[in-house]
Structure formats: structure tokens, C-alpha cells
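Course exercise 7: structure representation. Students receive a sequence record and must write out the corresponding structure in C-alpha cell form. The form below is the worked example handed out in class, using P-loop containing nucleoside triphosphate hydrolase protein (1338 residues). Read each field label carefully; the graders check that inputs and outputs are placed in the correct fields and that the protein name is recorded exactly as given.

STUDENT ID: A-19
EXERCISE PROTEIN: P-loop containing nucleoside triphosphate hydrolase protein
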Amino acid sequence: MTSLRSSMVEEPERLPFVFRVKPVTDDDIWDIQEKDTTKRNHKRAQAGWEKRVHRYEQQIAEATTASHSNTPTKPVKKPSMLAVIIGSMGGWPVFFATIFLLLQYVYSTFIHLFLPLSTSVHILEPAMMSLVVLQVEKKGDDPSVPFPWAAGIIMILCPFIHTVMDVWAKAIYYHYSTQVRAGLSSLIFDKTMKLSLNDDQDSNRGQLLSLIAADSRNLAELLPDCFHLPLMPIQVIVPLIIVCTIWGASGLMSMAAIVVIIPIQLFLLSLLSRSFRNYYKHNDIRNKTTTETMEGIRTVKCGGMEKSFINKIENIRKQQVNSVFAFTFLTQCSSSLFTTLPLLVRYTTMVVVISTRRISQESFGTDVIPILGYLTQMTEPGDELPILIQNASLLYVGQKRIRDFLLSKELGEHDSDIEMESDTAIKIEKADFAWDQSKSNDDKSTETTKQSSQTTPTLVPTLKNVSLSVKKGSLTMIVGKVGSGKSSLAAAIVGEMTQTQGKCAVSGSVAYCPQAPWIANTTVRENITFGLPFDQTKFDETIRVCSLLRDLKELPAHDLTEIGERGTNLSGGQKARVQLARAVYADRDVYVLDSPLSAMDAKVAKEVMAECICGKLKGKTILLVTNNTFWVSKADQILNVENNEVIDQQLRTASQLDLNQPKIQPAPSPSPQPAPTPTLMNQNQDENNTSFPQNDINETNHLPEFSLQANSDSDDPDVVKAGSKMIVDEEYMTKSVPIRAYFTYFNSLLPLPLLILFIVLVALPIGIDAFATYWLGVIGTKEQIPSMGYPVKLTIYGILSAGLLVVLLLRTVIAAYAAKRSGTRIHNEMLNSVMRTPTSFFDTNPMGRVLNRFTGDLTQIDQLLLFVLINVVGLWLNLIGSIIINSIDYVLFLAIGPPILVIFVILLVLYARASRNLQRLESLSRSSTLSMFGECLSHNGLSTIRLYNQTDEWKERFAKKNDDWTIRFLLYQQGRLWSSLYASIISSLYMCGVVLFGWNFMSPVKLAVAIDSAMGFSHYGQELVRQNVDLDSRMTSFERVMFYSRRLPHETTTVSQTPPPDWPSEGKIEFENVSFRYRMGLPLILKNVSFEISPGESVGVCGRTGAGKTSLVAALFRLVELDPELVPDELDVKTGLPHPRNANERNEGRILIDGVDISKLELARLRQSISLIPQEPTVFTNSIRANIDLEGRHSDEEIWNVLNLVQMDGVVREFENGLDHNLVDGGESLSTGQKQLLCFARALLNNSKILVLDEATANIDDATDRQIQQTIREQFRGKTVIVIAHRLNTIIDLDKILVMNGGQNAEFGSPAELMEDQNSYFNTLLKSMGDEENIVEM
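STUDENT ANSWER:
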């Protein structure tokens, strides 16, 4: 009783936001009900799906058994997702809601069960209309005839009661549809967590985002309306029975036009379904390509290749908009037929009835017009059928896509049935491991050979016949050349590959650090603790042994600094150490570390090896993948991997492995080299590499005391505030969609002459229809146009019907063209705008948010915006037309019609405020959900989440974000229903005015026309409220797209100087007092940097993490502008809106190449003149040829030549299609080292005068590195080369060394000059190396 009373008290607070003047914010959103939560509906959907999948698997097993015995079997059908949606997710409320809708159209069946008023309201309207008109006719002969109160009141209340029942049913449907969306999207997320995106070519990231952003969303929005489809036959049959009862067999003529149109509609439906399948097919391809382009945006921009990638995506879009043309044309065709249907049915039926029953012109108003109401009801489904057919097609295609994804192959568990000794941690016996048959992965090597031609579903093993045993507490190192299979072995051990035969077992819990670190978009602290409770002591010890203390101290908010998506504001070494710290903090039994040291410089690498791997983790079982053979001296055991096999299938000790490798000797230099350089090399003749500390030379090896528990007093609070939040909030505008947005959309549809014609064709059918309704009154009145006879007037009505169809079909063609043109222009403008944004935009905006504009919002515009816009314009014109019809002959009616219309406008304006805010809140929550989902899909995200047992935690996070999306969607839909209810009250008022006015002033025939028009007013009014909100929703999506198209900050396009065609001809580079910061509020990253690189010089750049090495590259490629006049605006982190940078935080300095200030040049011209090989290689889904020759300007011979130079020609030749071999999902068939070599080949082919290598050899083994360095010296002789490197032998024999420290150039000179100065940073670094260190990775 208490709970009931409590709920009754709380209920008034849950009023809808219909007349809300104050903007609706997140604080106003209610808590979600338990029945609508993701967790509950996931269980319901999962139970229904698993039951059907189990039955499906049984049938497959039976069919397989029968096929072995040659017994004929029927094809096994896939489990029905529709059965899950309707059978498992539906229930009694949905059943009763459907029955309630049914009762609106069926009277006789339920007359004894329910009150007539609540069951036959829709059917009663024409009957009551007939009674009122008859009374008016009698009143003409006898003024004392009383007003028909019962009939009048029933007819007045019909719109309201009809809407109450409809709203009640739809409220249930919307709860149901959101429950379906929540349940299925959770199943999709759950399934995703069981996939390896590396082994399922079909389950690409673009498709997965589309499943959540489009398919599941369509279920929530469109499913409720589809429940009207089964009721449509009843809506036709019941009025038909009544018409036949009144008019006899002549009434059957009303079905003639409907019977003719039905086969046409079924044919259109089949074509419509096909067009939607094609649309989504190209949508997946476009989403995937767009995602890859955005993720590799630095490579694209630094190569000045934006136009090439824009053209590639636009070509895919060009194919997709052909489908937009198709389904718009088909939908508009269907709409045209059904819009014309009421007039055709009326005309054919009237002609037959009047001729067979000999109805006079005088009786037309009482014997014909009231019955036309039933004919209107028969054709009413035609108004909604086109869009319902479109919605049903979308849902059918979408549920099939979801079903097929849920049936896709999951990552299987290893066969671990193997005897293991008590001291054994890992044991593998004669096991094969495979990625997908179409590709391998990461060091996934060259085993992709000829797999594309195979048709068998059997997976081709990448690792073959692996047998090994690893003792507990041992340090085992995995070594081998690039592409040998090292990373595949690591992935196989942790369960990220499919085991095709043999046995594999791991004893204890596992921590995994993949070669490409996965960093979540959260704080550094949360990335390290990763779902575990925060323990300050444990945390401090973890960051100490992972050498993160200094790095965290330099971050603006220390360990509470927000990290951008994919770790964009961390260096490669920092990302590797944060990932390692995550593993250390997890405190696991087995550690599988894939090349974590390759991205670290010498001092840090040595500290991490000593303090972490051989210190903190001592006693743990560790498998360390490394490209640097120096480290193997510390190993207990070594696995030497070659050609995807463990050599000899057994372990070796370090003493058994031949580590002696030839040393790289100084190459002849174009400039004189002083003598000390060879002395250094001779001094270290037994060493493979040379290491030097990254820190200030005067610092000791001891780490400074530093606590992360609180910020120091010396910290600048403004800097801490700026650094603690990196990701900007999504823009949120509470005002109405501005009128200029509508003009912008109109402008995108058609050229002005065609646009004017199109507007005329939108309005003209409404005018024809309104005039046809008015003409009914003329037909029944001899006094009007007496010179025209009764048959002629009927013929004119028929001509109007045919003319309406012709106009609508002409509009259909233009509308389809307009949708195609608009879809092309809107997408291309947004794509070009996003591609012109600075790289900081992608650092501060989650990829899911950006892609949501290209998926969810663009899909809404493609499929619904134009259709809804045409409908809304038509509905407004219909309302106005209804008033005009009644006012032509009775001007006094203007005292009733316009005021009612004004009330309608007030309702729409008031509700539109809340509707817009709710729609935008729903869009923001959807973007947040998609961003989180996209983050999981990013490289190594799924494997990291799984192996740290955080799957349940991320499912909870997804469920929470999904629930936020659900409740906002529900509130938005419920507001629509309440507004429809209020609209029905206004419609009843209008009907009341018509009846009372007609009783006193109108003739029977004019009153019949007026009531018929008022019935249309009720229908149009309620539909207008619904579709006007829909239009506002679609225009909100358009406005969001336009924000990205028109308001994002852009890189400058100003060109004030055009260099000579052969520029740069020398390659001289000058930095003059360069200082800049990446974002407002942050400290300067480079401080007054000045140096000069002579033409043809090779310069090595070194320095500790965060010293500013890579920032030199950002300045050189103008990823950051130095000229204050060219610096683009920034997006405010709180509002997401652009605002200018602070004038007090100016960037300064300039960079000259061959004497030309690069800030004066066109960006593409500058960037195409410099070749960059980045630390993190970027490979796109395309052929090998297209990945090397991005512009398509070189011959195959030239491509093979550069592949030979980087030692990749043998790998490529093993592919069946050679250069035409398609690399999927960012080159997942290649190892990281192989992808890096492709980037080398790309730079060699470009043959620029200036080459920049940004730590480009970190993922390459020593022997390959030496060969690459030799190739660079030979191929770039006489050209300017800048090498940012971790290995000293990479830069020790270069012309000059630039030492960066704290954002400044600490030293710049030749290696000999720096060594001669005993106090130099460089010389002290060399001297600080002990003989035992043997020159490791820097």
C-alpha cells in the first residue's frame, strides 16, 4: 500500500515535456524503468536467440549426418530473428495493444464486449455525419427539427477517442521497440566481445558500427508503425462491408482500383527491399573506408593525400547514392499511387453507383457524400502504406544483417587437455594456429600465400606444428626476423588465434601487451588500474618500475590527465609503458609482452628491463618478444621463430644462440667526417647497437621522489585544468533549427529553376486534391455553374483524379534526382570539411562521434528527410486547404478556421522546444554509445579487454550508456504521443465548430463537404504533429552534419607564394625561433628552437620522451601553424563550439626550406615535397600497389624495385595476386614490421628531396634495420635526411646530431664535435654506457 501511495505521489513529476518552455537538460531526464533496461532485455533476447540457434545447430548436425549417408535433406534455414523479436521480446502488452488498435476498426465483433463509443469510433464518423446531414436537410423543410445531439457529440468526440486508443497502443509499442533495440544491441556487443576482428573479414568495424548506429536504431524508431500493416486489410474490409450494405453490389466497384494497385505495390516492394540491401552494402564499405582514413589521418595529411582519399570515399558514395535514387523513386511512386487512390476510388464508385442506383443531383449531398467517408477510410491506409512499406523493408534488411552477424564465427577456445608438470606454465604440443583463411595478422607473416583462392572453409594455419614448454618463473624471449611469426606466437599463447590442431595450455592468469598498445579514452590512472580497485602504494610502485614517474609529472594533470582516443597525446614509448604498467598492476601469473621495449629509448628501456621485467616481475612467467638480440643475454630461454615455426621445436639457452652479427660501418659521407667517429665504432666492436639516456645528462640514474597523490603547489592550476580534459564535449544547441538550415537543404536538392518547379509540384497536388473536395459540393449543387450538367461535373472530378496522378509521378522523378543530388553534396561537403580540419580535431573528438555523423545522421538524411519534408509541407497545405474549402462559400467560417490553425501552430511551437532538446540529448547519448563501442573495436581493444577479464565491466559500461540512450528516446517518443493527444482535442474543437456553423448556415451538400473536410483536418492535424516532430528530428541530424560541414576549424588554404616547380631543389631547412603549444592552456612544447640543416645533410635527432623530437615533425609538416594569423580556431572543451585562440598564447617563429617560408605555401604542395616514415605504420584497405603508389603515378617496375630495396619483394611475390593482393582491415595480413617496410617503400617511391624518419625502425629487427639504413644512404645520397631514432647505430654515422631536451635544441653538431666536448650531452651519454650494456635500443 505504501509503495502504491508512493508511486501515486511521484506520478505527477513524470509529466511529459510537451509545453516545456525551459530547455530540457540531462538533469530533467528520468531514471529508466527496470522493464526497459538493457540488462533485462539482453536476457530476454539471448534466451530467445539461443533457443533457436540450438535448434539450428541440431538441424545442421542432422543434415551433416544425413549427407554422409547420402540421404536427401532439405536446406537448413537460418534461425529467424523476427521470431525472436516478436515471439521472445513481445508479450501480452503488445498483443493487447494490437487488439486495441483493431477495435478502432471493428465494431460488430466486439459490440457485446465493449462500449460502442470506444470500439467503433472510426467507423462511426461517416454514420454520424449522415445523420447530421439528413437532419439539416429536414430542417430546410421544417425549421423546428431539433439538433441531433447524440450524433453531433459522437462525431465531435470521435477524433479524440480514436487518438486516445491509438496513443495507448503506441506507448506500449515504443516501450517494446526500445526493449528490442536494447536487447539486440546488447547481443551485438556481447557477440563482438567474442570475436577476433583479425579473423573475420566480414565482421569489419564499419559493419559493426552500422549495426548499432542504423539497424538497431531503425528497430526502435520504425517497428511501432509496422504493427499497423496487419490491420490495414481490416481498415479496408470493414468500410467495404458497410458500403456494400448501403449501396449493394455497386459498392464492390470501390475495390477495383485497390485490386489493380496491390500487385503494383508488391512489385515496388520487392524492388525497394533490393535497393535497401544495396544501400547498406555500400554503406558498410564507405564506413569502413572512412574509418580507416580517419584513423590514418596523420599519414594522409603528412603526405598531402587528402584529395586522393576524398575521391576514393566519394566514389563509393557515388555508388551508394544510386541506391538513394532507387528507393526514393520507388517510395515516391508508391506514395503517388496511394495519394491518388482516394480520388480514383471515389470517382469510379460514384459513377457506378449513380448510374446503377439512379441517384439524382439533388440527393447527391445526402446519399453519396456521407458514404464517401467510408471510401476515404478504405483508402486511408494508402496514405501510410508507402512509408510503412519503406520502414518494413528497412527492418527486414536490418534484422537479417543482425541475424547473420550473430551467426558469425567466434574466437574458439584452445584444446587444453594436456598433461602439465607442476613447474610448467605454458605447454604446446604439435599445435597449428590460424587466423582467418583470407588473412593472417601482425607478425602474421607471409603465410597468407594463395589463401584468397581457396574455397574450403578450413582455416589455413599460420603457425605450424608448434611444440614448446615454458617453465614457471622463467624469462623466455621470442626472437626472429620481420614477418617470422613472433607476434602470432604470442597471440596464439594468449588465445587470440584459432587452434586448428594439437594442444595448448597455459597455467594461471595471463597479462598481455600487444605490439600496438591499446589505450582507452580515459585518464592515465584508469588506463593502468583498468577496472581494479585503486591502491596508492601499489600504483606508485607500478609507475616507478615502468619508468613513468617523470612522464606523469610532466603531464598537466599528472595521472589524472585525460588520454585521447588511441593515446593520441602520448608518445609511442609512453603508450608502451602505460600498457606495461596495466599488466604489472594486474599482478598476473603469466606475462606475454610483445615488443614493449622497441618504442622506448635507451635509459628507459634499461630501467624497465632492470626494475620491471627482471625486478618487479621476477618470479613471474614472462614471454618477451623482441627485435633486439642484445636483450637475450638476460633470458632464461629463447624461442627462435622462423617461417612461422619454432626452430627445432625446442627451447635454447642464450649461450646456444649465435648472437654475433656483423657491425654496420660508417658509410662515406658527402661532408668530411672527423676521426673520432670510427674510434667510437672500434671501441664498441663487439656491440650490436648503441644506447644513450633520454634524460638530462647531469641527472643520475636514480628516479626523483614524486608523489601523484596531489598536485604540487607550484603547478599552474590553469594548465592542470586544461590538461585534465582533452576530449571536447559534443556541441549541444537548445535553439530551434534555424531557417537557414532549411534553405541550405533546399539549395542542396536542386538547381534554382528545378527547385522552383519542384516546390510547385509539391504544392500543386494539394491544390488539386483540395479543389476536388470542393468540387464535390459543386457536383451536388445545381445553382453553382448551372451551365454545366451533372455528368460533366462528374467527368471533371475524374479528370482531376488523373491529373493528380500525372503531377505526382512527375514529382517522383524530380524528388529521386533531388535526393541523389542532395545526398552527394551533403556527404561530400562534410567529408571535405572534416578532411580539412587540423589533426588536433581528431585528437580531441572520439572517432565514434565523428563516424556517427557519417553513419547515423547521414542515414537519416538519406532515407527519410526528403520524404518527411514533402509530407509535412503537404499536411500544412491540406490543413489550410480544409479551411479554404469551407470559407469559399461561407466567409464567416474564417472566424473558426484560422483561430484553430493558430492553436495548432502554438502547440507545435511549444512542443518543438522540448522535442528538439530531447532529440539532441538522444543524439548525444547515441554518439556516446557509439564512441564507446568504436573504442572497443579499435586495434587490440577486444583482446585487451578479454585478457584482463574486463568483459563484464565493459558490458556494464555499454549497458549504462545504452540505457541513457533508451530513456531519452522513450521520452522523445512519449512527448510525440502526448502532442498527438492535444492535437486530437484541437481537431475535436474544429469538428465542433464545423457542425455548429453548418447547422446554422450551410446547405446539406455544403455541410457534407465541410464535415468530410473536417474529418480530413483531424487526420492531417494529428499526422502533422507526428511528422513535424519527425522533420525536426531529421533536420537536427542535418544540422549536426552541417556543423561539421560549415563550422569546424580548418587548416588554412591561404597561398601567398608559389615556389618554383623543382622546389625544393637543395633541401636546406632552417628553424628560426620556433615556439608553439598544441592547445590553449597547455605549456609550450617547443621553445625558441633554432638550427639549420645544410642541403644534402643527414641529421639524427635524439632526446628523452617528451623532449620535442616528434614536435619538430609537426612543425615541419605544418600540422601546427606557427604564424598566429594562420592558427585555426579551437573547439571549446565544454561546449564543443569553435572559438578563437587566446592572443596571449601565440605560436612564434618560422621554418624555411630552400629559403622559402613554408607558411606561405599551399599545404598539399609542402607536404608532398617531404617524405615521412612514421613510427606507427599506416596501411589502408586496398591493393599492395595502391598502398605504395597512393597517387597511381608509377609503373609496376618502379614498385617492384622499391620493394626489393626494402626486402619485401619476396613476401609480395608469395601472394597469389602479387601487387594486386588486397590488404584488408589496415593490412592485418602483414606484421607490424612488414607494414613499416611498406611505408619505407612508399617513401622511396616518392623520391622526395627531404626524408623524415620518425622512430621508423622500432619494429624492425637489427639485420633488416642495417639493410634499410644502407638503402637510405644509397638512395638518398645528396638529399636531406632527418632521422629520429632509438638506435644509436642508426644516427652515429650521420652528418650531424640534434639533441632535444625540454622542448629546446640542447646541442647541434657533428658526432665528432659533440664527442670532443667532454661536457656535451651527447658525449656524456656515450660515456655513461657500461661495457656490459652493449649499445641497446635508445
